[in-house]
Design goal:
- This protein has four domains: 3-79, DnaA, N-terminal domain (GMP Synthetase, Chain A, domain 3); 112-267, 3-Layer(aba) Sandwich (Rossmann fold); 273-334, Orthogonal Bundle (Helicase, Ruva Protein, domain 3), CATH 1.10.8; 349-438, DnaA protein, C-terminal DNA-binding domain (Chromosomal Replication Initiator Protein Dnaa, Chain: A), CATH 1.10.1750.
- It is 55% helix and 10% strand.
- It has helices at 2-15, 20-27, 47-67, 122-133, 152-166, 177-189, 193-201, 218-233, 254-260, 273-286, 293-302, 307-323, 330-342, 349-360, 364-368, 374-390, 395-401, 407-423, 425-438, and strands at 31-36, 39-44, 74-79, 142-146, 172-176, 205-209, 237-242, 264-268.
- The protein has a five-stranded parallel β-sheet with strand order 5-6-7-4-8, with helices on both faces. A three-stranded mixed β-sheet has the order 1-2-3.
- A hairpin with a 2-residue loop joins strand 1 (31-36) and strand 2.
- The protein starts with a helix and ends with a helix.
- It binds adenosine-5'-triphosphate (ATP).
- Residues 109-110, 114-116, 121, 146, 148-154, 243, 279, 282, 307-308, 311 line the site of adenosine-5'-triphosphate.
- Pfam families: Bac_DnaA, Bac_DnaA_C, DnaA_N.
Length: 439
């Protein structure tokens, strides 16, 4: 099992530095065979592929192993003719739009059985179970919101799996808002609107991820409005996920917002320590890895941000121990995670501006510009506040960045946000979400 963990991490790292063509030609067919005395053994389909990879990618692979914490990065290539495709336990998040069978877009790991219920998500979980038991009848739509990597997609897919096995005749469609938008644009361009409408209006369960991205997209909102109505009136189930509640999705047409509020709105919060430990244990069990309890506790204490990072950290510890030929212990975990948590991010003002603009569904030039519309003023103040907090920029520099404003304007904005943060839990949550986006 461990070699898959390591290889998946290596691939994730390598992908950032090579082209898709290189990746698909040389890396997709490599199979991790095992780790023997700290040496990662990799299976390649032909000796030609082996030689090519050795000649051109040795450094790339070694660098990835170093990054994973291997003291001496070593790997060996073995020719495995016919190279059987193994079951991928790391089935990546589904890529909507790439498959023709909507059910295959559901990630097989994202089931109710694999979902740990804690105080942070029990309401959302209960609502999802109720919907899975009687789609279209319990809560419609079900609107799940919460920060990055906290399990919204997992819960949606879990409903999909459960409905698929209980009611095999029902048609299920999972789609991200981005894909919905892209498909809509394509349908308009290719004059295929009838097909597009038929497809989305004939489903029994529609799962739409990241609906906050519909903000500011008028045509998509219009089309989604009609899809929503058609399904709702026919008693079909709709589940929506978002990083914020409907009332905080600015530039969302009022008629859509009110529809999103018709059913049940439920949130997922960050998990507390016990739930984080339980999630780590479940993950290890799912992947067949044995780890001492104190290591779970250690990881759960240092990684508090989100569950995706929690899982990533567990995998890093497993990979680190295996590559260095040591048993997993608390000390080893601390070493494996040390550089991850030492590095404090330094952001560029542009990056922060972009994250704030995206969050509020605005353009960056609107944030920088002179507009005094209510919807722009607060986001602009938030951007100034975050730039001050997360960069070394001085007040005059920030003023300059915002189209040459005076530093007193920046100071005023920062004070406004500071004051508001004292008792505005909504704003506190929004700032947390933006920081999470920055990573
Ligand atoms: N309660 C849970 N129990 C077990 N695993 C969980 C739980 N919540 C989240 N996870 C895992 O955490 C990872 C991130 O979850 P998911 O992708 O559903 O988050 P998300 O809220 O949809 O994030 P994003 O906002 O980035 O779309 C997944 O691997 C998921 O299986």
């Amino acid at each position: 099992m461990t070699q898959h963990t390591i290889w998946q991490n290596v691939l994730d790292y390598i992908r950032q530095s090579i082209t898709d063509v290189e990746y698909n030609t040389w890396f997709v067919k490599i199979r991790p065979l095992g780790v023997y005395n700290g040496v990662l053994e990799l299976g390649v389909p032909t000796s030609f592929a082996g030689e090519w990879i050795k000649k051109h990618y040795t450094e790339t692979i070694q660098e990835a192993l170093l990054h994973l914490g291997a003291q001496t990065p070593r790997f060996e290539l073995k020719v495995i003719p016919g190279n059987p495709v193994q079951e991928d336990i790391f089935s990546a998040a589904p890529e909507p739009g790439k498959s023709t069978d909507p059910r295959s877009r559901l990630n097989s790991k994202y089931t109710f059985e694999n979902f740990v219920v804690g105080p942070n998500n029990s309401m959302a979980h209960a609502a999802a179970v109720a919907v899975a038991e009687s789609p279209g009848k319990a809560y419609n739509p079900l609107f799940i919101y919460g920060g990055v990597g906290l399990g919204k997609t997992h819960l949606m897919h879990a409903v999909g799996h459960s409905v698929a096995s209980r009611f095999p005749q029902l048609k299920i469609e999972y789609i991200s808002t981005e894909t919905f938008t892209n498909e809509l644009i394509e349908a308009i361009q290719k004059d295929r609107m009838t097909e597009f409408r038929d497809r989305y209006r004939s489903v029994d369960l529609l799962l739409v991820d990241d609906i906050q991205f519909i903000a500011g997209k008028e045509r998509t909102q219009e089309e989604f409005f009609h899809t929503f109505n058609a399904l709702y009136e026919a008693g079909k189930q709709i589940i929506l996920s978002s990083d914020r509640p409907p009332k905080d999705i600015l530039t969302l047409a009022a008629r859509l917002r009110s529809r999103f509020e018709w059913g049940l709105i439920t949130d997922i919060q960050s998990p507390e320590l016990e739930t984080r430990v339980a999630i780590l244990k479940m993950n290890a069990e799912y992947r067949g890895i044995r780890i001492p309890d104190e290591v779970f506790e250690y990881i759960a204490k240092v990684v508090t941000s989100n569950i995706r990072e929690l899982e990533g950290s567990l995998m890093r510890v497993v990979a680190y121990a295996s590559l260095n030929g040591v048993e997993i212990s608390k000390q080893v975990a601390a070493r494996a995670l040390s550089d991850v948590f030492m590095a404090k991010a330094e952001y560029a003002p542009e990056e922060i501006l972009r994250a704030v603009a995206e969050f509020y569904g605005l353009r960056t030039d609107e944030l920088k510009g002179a507009g005094r519309r209510k919807e722009v003023v607060l986001p602009r103040q938030v951007a100034m506040y975050l730039i001050r907090e997360l960069t070394h920029s001085s007040l005059p520099e920030i003023g300059q960045f915002f189209d040459g404003r005076d530093h007193t304007t920046v100071l005023y904005a920062i004070q406004k946000v500071q004051e508001a943060l004292d008792n505005d839990t909504n704003l506190q949550q929004n700032l947390r979400a933006i920081r999470e986006r920055l990573g």
